[in-house]
Automatic annotation (TrEMBL):
The lineage of its organism: Eukaryota, Fungi, Fungi incertae sedis, Microsporidia, Tubulinosematoidea. Pfam families: WD40 (PF00400). This is Anaphase-promoting complex subunit 4 WD40 domain-containing protein. InterPro entries: WD40/YVTN_repeat-like_dom_sf, WD40_repeat_dom_sf, WD40_rpt. It comes from the Eukaryota.
């Protein structure tokens, strides 16, 4: 059994997402706050957009998805923030992929934006159930759904399109991890037993 050698109290509510490398550790929570830790500094920042549910980090900018459907861009060097209303409900997951941002929501949709223009999506898809997880995969990405299915999306000539779907769980897929052709998925239910799956595809 793994035993933590250090515990940190960072938030007054549950931590919804985190980003970690050797250089930086970022968390977000339902207390509307993010924490930013490096080897030499620690910083907290509060935002007034409701719960902060998901985040990603790239090139000194933290991208945050909120309960109210906003994406917040926060520059850690300048302390400036910008916000964009992109969904009608909670943004449950957000991923940055070089020149694009992929978002999933409880409004049963996923969207892809050019990282330099969040005013208009370059791809949208309405799905069956809430989008709960996203992972970059081969030439595109995959999403885990409330229904227990994984949807596959491809990118060709800078355009995205839906490929196909696999139903692999009986519970909502809370997280996805990919390694070349191997997909790891974790499904979780508050009232039923949990399950996990590893598929090679």
């Amino acid at each position: 059994m793994l035993i933590p050698d250090k515990k940190l109290k960072l938030h007054s509510s549950d931590i919804k997402d985190m980003f970690i490398t050797n250089d930086i550790f970022i968390t977000c929570s339902r207390d509307n706050k993010i924490t930013i830790s490096t080897k030499d500094t620690y910083k907290e920042r509060i935002f007034n957009y409701g719960y902060l549910n998901t985040l990603d980090y790239s090139n000194d900018i933290i991208y945050i998805g909120t309960q109210s459907g906003f994406i917040i861009l926060y520059n850690i060097l300048t302390d400036k923030e910008y916000s964009y209303k992109v969904h009608n409900d909670n943004i449950s997951v957000l991923k940055v992929n070089s020149d694009t941002i992929i978002t999933g929501s409880w409004d049963n949709s996923l969207k892809v934006f050019n990282i330099n223009n969040l005013n208009e999506s370059i791809f949208e898809d309405n799905v069956k159930g809430s989008v709960l997880s996203i992972s970059l995969y081969k030439t595109g990405f995959i999403v885990g759904l409330e229904t227990g299915a994984i949807n596959f999306y491809k990118r060709e000539n800078n355009k995205y399109f839906y490929s196909h779907s696999l139903l692999i769980h009986n519970h909502p897929i809370r997280d996805l991890f990919t390694n070349e052709s191997v997909i790891h998925s974790i499904a979780h239910s508050l009232i039923k037993s949990n399950d996990k799956c590893i598929i090679e595809y």
